[in-house]
Amino acid sequence: MAVHPSAIIEPGVVIGKGTAIWDNVHIRHSTRIGDECIIGEKAYIAYGVVIGDRVKINAFVYICTGVVIERGVMIAAGTVFTNDRFPRATTPDLRHLHSSDPDEETLPTLVREGATIGANCTIGCNLKIGRFATVGMGSVVTHDVPDFFLVAGSPARQMGYVCACGHPLFPPRQDGFSEVHTEKVCVACETRYEVAGSSVKQLAPTI
Q1: Which of 163, 206, 161, 153 shows the shortest CA–CA distance to 187?
Q2: Could you tell me whether strands 67-69 and 109-111 are parallel, antiparallel, or unpaired per DSSP bridges?
Q3: Res 182: pLDDT
Q4: DSSP code, position 119
Q5: Structure-derived torsion over alpha carbons of residues 41, 45, 49, 53, reported in degrees to the nearest 10
Q6: How distant, in Å, are the alpha carbons of 23, 164, 203 from that of 1?
């Protein structure tokens, strides 16, 4: 583990072996970070966040309470997570500041293993980003993203599909998710996939 002297690591944080914390990072209490991760400069990770092994978090990323990030995820620079659909600073009479502690309005987000989130994305709350999915740079994610989907835009919508290696597989049909049990092969690594509706399944290698 390597922690830059300018980083702020609060008590109760668990950091795995081989993880690097860069300059001016702030990690709040009770957060757990796995092995061999990289936390880029000036990133902020709130309390209670769970991060798996071999996760790359680039500079200026904001990860709020309620976020779980599985192993092998990449989060590019400037990405912001959210956890409240109806945020207010005060009570309706403006007399009392709301606490920053989690309450019934705090909603979780799960980023599944192998996913990539591009630079300057905004991630909504109470949703899942699927295994090996890719979110294009500058996107605003407001709905779940299925496994192996490529989404982009504001709000993010499907642009295609991606292989576990990161290369695009093929564009979506113009008439929607009407393909049934269609097999596709990645041109980069020759991994095979089966598409059934909006589901993409990685197939076992042929012998």
Answers
A1: 163
A2: parallel
A3: 83
A4: T
A5: 0
A6: 14, 28, 36
> pLDDT value at position 177?
47
CA distance 13 to 193: 39
DSSP one-letter code for 120: T
Encoded tokens for 88: 């207010």
Amino acid identity, residue 204? A
Is pLDDT larger for residue 57 or for residue 199? 57
Residue 5 contacts by C-beta under 8 Å, 6 or more apart in sequence? none
DSSP letters for 149-184:
EEEETTTTEEEEEB-TTS-B--PPPTT-S---SEEE
Q: Which two tokens stand for residue 2?
A: 């390597």
Percent helix, percent strand, percent coil in the chain, to nearest 5:
0, 35, 65
Cross-strand partners of 76: none
Q: What is the CA radius of gyration of the chain?
A: 19
